[in-house]
Design a protein that fits this description.
Helix content: 40-55%
Low-confidence stretches: none
Number of strands: 5
Structural class: alpha/beta
Strand content: 15-25%
Number of domains: 1
Number of helices: 5
Strand order of the largest sheet: 2-1-4-3-5
Shape: globular
Mean pLDDT: 95
Distance between the termini: 28 Å
CATH class: Alpha Beta
Length: 156
């Protein structure tokens, strides 16, 4: 099983990018992991938010195979405590299917992406910048791996 975090647009804050890279380095000791960036759309001023979601959705779906579990990071998704998320990851790992977690663009996801998704999860009821979500989520995947191995990173 491989875990991919698929995101729209690059991380522009160098401090956040360094932290993301640190957790990526840690993660590869536990599970194959990749962060894939779909380039931001150009000339979006000429597009409505709906059109932008549609184009981004088409780009997102190009990365998804029929055998992939696609899970959206969405404010209306299921919230987990870290231990519950570790159990969720364990079940996904047991299935043997590759998992792609997706962070959408500034306006969210198109209807076609929602229809293809296998699940939605939420990091919080609060709203975070897309760049911060990447960092928080990569850290949570790392935390889940340490929980599953009973390592001392997570305290409860």
């Amino acid at each position: 099983m491989k875990i991919t975090l698929l995101v729209v647009g690059k991380t522009t804050d160098t401090h956040i990018e360094k932290l993301i890279q640190e957790y990526q380095k840690r993660l590869v000791h536990y599970v194959p992991f990749a962060l894939t960036v779909i380039p931001e759309l150009k000339n979006t001023k000429s597009l409505t938010s709906q059109q932008q979601k549609q184009v981004e959705g088409e780009l997102i779906l190009k990365y998804i195979t029929p055998s992939t579990d696609m899970i959206l990071l969405d404010e209306r998704g299921t919230e987990f405590r870290s231990i519950e998320f570790a159990d969720y990851i364990q079940k996904k790992m047991s299935s043997g299917r590759d998992v792609v977690f997706v962070v959408g663009g500034p306006y969210g996801f198109s209807e076609s992406v929602y229809q293809r998704a296998n699940a939605k999860i939420s990091l919080s009821k609060m709203t975070f910048s897309h760049q911060m979500v990447r960092l928080f989520f990569v850290e949570q995947i790392y935390r889940a791996m340490t929980i599953l191995r009973s390592e001392p990173y997570h305290h409860e």
